[in-house]
Design a protein that fits this description.
The complex is a heterodimer of chains A (122) and B (111). Chain A has 122 residues and is an all-beta fold. Chain A contains no helices and eleven strands. Chain A has strands at residues 3-7, 11-12, 18-25, 35-41, 47-53, 59-61, 69-74, 79-84, 93-100, 109-112, 116-120. The relative contact order of chain A is 0.31. Helices cover 0% and strands 47% of the residues of chain B. Chain B contains no helices and ten strands. In chain B, the strands form two sheets. In chain B, strands 2, 4, 5, 8, 9 and 10 form a six-stranded mixed β-sheet that branches. Classes of the chains: A mainly beta (122), B mainly beta (111). Chains A and B meet through strand 5 and strand 10 of A and strand 8 and strand 9 of B.
Chain lengths: 122, 111
């Protein structure tokens, strides 16, 4: 059974870049038609989808955040990563990685990581 | 402010039936599938309902989903204490270049 685990610093200074990695275990990141997402949840708020990537490197971003996001994949390490640049306190959130079984609106995210808390503070 | 609207809380006693609603618009729920996610305390979110009313294997048939127009509902029958947690609806939104949108979540309390 595929499992996901987020990793990265829990504290980032304003204006710096937030970098997180999601490690896929129990299966290959190149499996089938899976797309790999990053989602975050601000304190006391709902979930916000940031974007997803296919193992070939094709990416798809939330239009409102696209200019600050970069999602990448490393198939040799079975990992995908998120970079958010020029962070502010508004980027403080729990960050989740997740996978869905195909591209677009027909596939739900059926595998999730536990989430990692990132605080932006000087 | 979440794109999809959910009541922040719901409650029921064991054995009761509870309905959690989700309201969207013509650019999301009306033209795309609705998904429901469950997040129990201390655990990762879990896909509970996909494509409006389908249950992944392992999800009890106490959970059911439906959609009508720009709204969707999750019904939980035979409520159990272990159902206590947060429930989120989600749908693809076709505005701009498209993106997943979620509800703000409904915290279910089993009294």
């Amino acid at each position: 059974q595929v499992q996901l685990q987020e990793s990265g610093p829990g504290l980032v200074k304003p204006s710096q870049t937030l970098s997180l990695t999601c490690t896929v275990s129990g299966g290959s990141i190149t499996r089938g038609t899976y797309y790999w997402s990053w989602i975050r949840q601000h304190p006391g708020k709902g979930l916000e989808w940031l974007g997803y990537i296919y193992y070939t490197g094709n990416t798809y971003y939330n239009p409102s955040l696209k200019s600050r996001l970069r999602i990448s994949v490393d198939t040799s390490k079975n990992q995908f990563s998120l970079n958010v640049n020029s962070v502010t306190v508004a980027d403080t959130a729990v960050y989740y990685c997740a996978g869905q079984g195909g591209f677009g609106s027909r596939y739900g995210m059926d595998v999730w990581g536990q989430g990692t808390t990132v605080s932006v503070s000087s | 402010q979440s794109v999809l609207t959910q009541s922040p809380s719901a409650s029921g006693t064991p054995g009761q039936r509870v309905i959690i609603s989700c309201s969207g618009s013509s650019s999301n729920i009306e033209r795309n599938y609705v998904f429901w996610y469950q997040r129990l305390p201390g655990t990762a979110p879990k896909l509970l309902i996909y494509r409006n009313d389908q249950r992944p294997s392992g999800v009890p048939d106490r959970f059911s989903g439906s959609k009508s127009g720009t709204s969707a509902s999750l019904a939980i029958s035979g409520l159990r204490s272990e159902d206590e947690g947060d429930y989120y609806c989600a749908s693809w939104d076709d505005s701009l270049t498209g993106l997943w949108v979620f509800g703000g979540g409904t915290k279910l309390t089993v009294l």
